[in-house]
Amino acid sequence: MKLMMDLVVNHTSDEHEWFLQSKSSKDNPKRDWYIWRPGKQVDGKRLPPNNWKSVFQGSAWDYDENTDEYYLHLYVSKQPDLNWDNPNVRDAVWDIMRFWINRGCDGFRMDVINIISKAEGLPDAPVVDDSQYYQPATMHFANGPRVHEYIKQMHAEVLSKYDLITVGETPFTHDASQPAAYVLPQNKELNMVFSFDLMDLDAPDDSPLVRKAWTLAEFKDVVRRWQQFKRDEGFWNTVYIENHDHARSVSRFGNDSDGWRAISAKMLCILEVTLTGTLYIYQGQELGLKNFPRSWGIEEYKDVASQNYYNLVKVQRQKAEGREDVDMSDLLDNFQQKARDHARTPMQWDSSPNGGFTTGEPWMRVNDDYRSWNAAAQLQDPDSVCVFWKHAIKVRKQHDVLVYGKFELKLAEHQQVFAYSRALGDSEAIVMMNFGVSEAEIDPATLGDLEGCQLILGSYEASRDDGGGRLTLRGYEGRVYMKQVFPQGRAKN
Length: 493
Known about the structure:
By secondary structure, the chain is an alpha/beta fold. The protein contains twelve helices and 18 strands. A five-stranded antiparallel sheet has the order 12-13-14-18-16. Strands 1-7-8-9 form a four-stranded parallel sheet. The radius of gyration is 25 Å and the shape is globular.
């Protein structure tokens, strides 16, 4: 086992010694390690240096009375942004990385690494929401003017000197050319990045906490685009569908009802293990953990993103309706499907109190289903989602075509079936998944030549014979067929 660490160097805690020194006086040597600016006066009122909105609502600036200046925090006020334009900051980051590498770290997942360079002069963001003074400002800090200079320097000073794995988190980025600049080997930056196109598929541009209906056609297009993107130039993908910043995948893209939960979770597993890239599985995804129920009230949502957005909308509605008691049920409907909180409940290890996570008081309730849906129970059940994941990963490792093969989309116009082929040398795989509860009938001829293919992975316990020249997929059924089951040079055990 190797260890990849989370490297968070866009910002620090406001309790970090660096920031305590920085805020102590304008003359402190670490003052310029963070981004400080004087406020401005508008009609006799003191305002922050610009109109940037924090990712978590409100101003991206906090006022420090002691030094009469504001510091920038793109996230919460307790996370002040470091000033990467200061070479001393960059040198300190290199030292941190070397410290952990020397202690045995094998690589880094770099938190929001694409926002470390801000626009020169920190200009105001354009007004796109006239109901608020503070405006989204990602155009002024995402993939900023010197970000590649800094990461190339990181590569030269640290990464190139060790055998490491690196993956960068690149939010607020939907132009494929931007992630490419971080990943293409000739640029000497990172191994791969987390792109957010699939994660943002079911959210409107103005709020990740509101659910937008998505179509399978849109889903297919995102997967196809990244699977085929600059392969011949060495671009390498991350393969993921769930993480700590998004709701559970079986609730978003599968079906978390009692009858379909396990089957659809296995189908999503088939999607993941048959795509090119490095596979990332989030804790609980291998169990098919789902969102907690709609019956939970706002008090159960602990995430600052949920709380701040809820309070913002509540105040807006109170002002618009002229009363305190306003209906917020629609927002809770959206939160039940979209909030980050769903991925942050305690891990469901077993059926003991708190899911076996702790004998103390956890920061959040354990999902109500932990007594029956937990790791201990699934490890004993040969038909569980967890056991299926173990088998599916083994199948992926046995067939290089699933990892490195050419991707070709099939049945592009089908509204319920997602199908594609993977080809590498003499090997070819055909993957098909039914993203719905009703059966889907397809013509095998549209998938290519299935003659002589062998089913190597399926979301149902047993396959069934398809006759009459048609192929019928049951609800949320996924199948993987292989033309050459044992690639050249690999003997059957």
